[in-house]
Amino acid sequence: MPVVFLGHGSPMNAIEDNAYRRSWQALGKRLPRPKAILCVSAHWETRGVYVTATEKPETIHDFYGFPKTLFDVRYRAPGSPALAHRVAELLAGVRVHLDAGRGLDHGVWSVLEPMYPEADIPIVQLSLSILQPGAWHYDLAKALAPLRDEGVLVVGSGNIVHNLRLFRFNDPTPYDWALRFDEEIAERIEQDHHEGLLGYETLGPDALLSIPTPEHYLPLLYILALQRKGERASFFNEEVTGSISMRSVVIGA
Fold first, then answer.
1. pLDDT in tens, 191-216
2. Would you tell me how many other CB atoms lie within 10 Å of the CB of residue 88?
3. pTM as predicted
4. Which 3 state secondary structure label does DSSP give 127?
5. CB half-sphere exposure, 203, CA atoms < 13 A
């Protein structure tokens, strides 16, 4: 299976007929059909490593101030306790907590609903152990490599640039620093320069403005860690809106 990083942006992309949603719909049709999906989302931060292990995960509406139509969305994809146990088996070097009560947050369902609207593919979510540095997440993700050969689509959901404090709702003009950082990350991905992406906080002032907190950036590292020798990365949604980059990455397709 390929691996995918999706810049998810606003939760409204889940219900609006816009270019982002249409690109996710097209991606779902283009990729090989997965047996199951493992998603690492920016919106499940934990102390330690957790994985969802419920048969019927709920749709979590982890936001406020949006229209009722967005809160009415229910993405009823099944879970997969079997995949959750497989993930725990692969991540044997750390303690993995199986969470039988956790549902799917909007970082998961807002992008997977357009890709797989029938909601018939089992989905498991892996949390972000937020106290760990980028290199730790990258090394952890490498242990998930066998899933690609087992028909599991691994998806990272976040944003390369994500600074809501500086986001201007009435002005989509991208900040210069956001454009520079987005392009720098793209160049490093194209050059397979993963090591330089792990310590993002050392990449200068543009990085510190683009990633004031790490949770939206870290899912990208899980996808890069699963890139195999000779595989190339391709981009889509290469757009920066204000202080948010929607750039998405597909590897192995």
1. 998 998 999 889 999 999 999 999 99
2. 17
3. 0.95
4. strand
5. 25
